[in-house]
Amino acid sequence: MARENLISNRIKGIGFALRGAWLLIRTESSIQIQIVIAVVMTIAGFVFNLSALEWIVQILAISLVLGVEGINTAIEKMSDFVHPEFNEKIGFIKDVSAGAVMFVSIGATIIGLLIYLPKII
């Protein structure tokens, strides 16, 4: 019985995760833009015949940007729920969360430049 619960709980967890990913894609313009960029970069990877290592690094960079953006969205939504009106401390939390997305996005951009600039030039 414990094994069945473990498996059914994992399946439920995957369902919740898929629903959350769909909600992000459907409702958040920043994720929609990043998905478009991810698709473009994936197509570019095929066009420029990336090595296995380049694919790994690119996929990690894309995943990290999307994941941190998802966490940022969750923090923003939770902050708005807990304190709907303007609050300086909530604003600080939201700014720090957005800053984390910026750091990861800058890193992903640098990775993209390191992978693709030598192939273009």
Helices and strands, with pairings:
Blueprint: H1 2-27, H2 29-47, H3 52-82, H4 88-120
Report on this structure:
With 121 residues, this protein is mainly α. The termini are far apart. Helix 1 packs across helix 2, helix 2 runs antiparallel to helix 3 and helix 3 packs antiparallel against helix 4.
The radius of gyration over CA amounts to 18 Å
Task: Specify the overall morphology.
Answer: flat
Order of SSEs, N→C? Answer: HHHH
Regarding quaternary structure, how should these chains be classified?
single chain
> Spans with pLDDT under 50 lasting ≥5 residues?
none
How far apart are the first and last residues' alpha carbons, in Å?
Answer: 60 Å
Summarize the structure.
The protein is an all-alpha fold. The protein has helices at 2-27, 29-47, 52-82, 88-120.
Keyword list:
121 residues; mainly alpha; 4 helices; flat
